[in-house]
Amino acid sequence: ETGVTQSPTHLIKTRGQQVTLRCSSQSGHNTVSWYQQALGQGPQFIFQYYREEENGRGNFPPRFSGLQFPNYSSELNVNALELDDSALYLCASSDQAARAGELFFGEGSRLTVL
Amino acid sequence: LAKTTQPISMDSYEGQEVNITCSHNNIATNDYITWYQQFPSQGPRFIIQGYKTKVTNEVASLFIPADRKSSTLSLPRVSLSDTAVYYCLVGVSKAAGNKLTFGGGTRVLVKP
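The joint structure predicted for all components is written out below.
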């Protein structure tokens, strides 16, 4: 059973650019969530996808968007990057039928915006 | 959503028991109490979850008083590798799905 994998692990962008982060969910998991973690803070919920549909969104602007594919993998897209978007972006997968609140996180993609 | 309050940091020594108390005065009836652990440069990892009384697994114990307004995570005989940030979460229920709200967590430093 493979865990949650994310790519790339690190990347550097400049203000105004766009970025796409990718996530492969754990085998058998149908739900993917994305979180943003600024340095020294706890992760903040961006949005969740279940069966290819957005299923809940946190307090993030529309320039944060996502996709979930039929194999349950997912992408996070961020347009018009701002300096404050510099953070660790975490993907987590879960099974809606399993224990509530038990998410399996990847190691994250660290984005630096210059 | 119910908010949580936990210590910003705690220091301990190898072999000691570490207890982290989390306050959640406004916890809802359907909410579970869930704890996560996060090592540097890694994603958080689920440790333990409970609704009331005591829950124990191979990693930790979770004590929840009858009023459920607080909870205590207990890590027995910690080692250096237990140095991490520990997050207490409420607002977790089947109805809420898996949209977790993390606070600032407690940074636990285990010293030799």
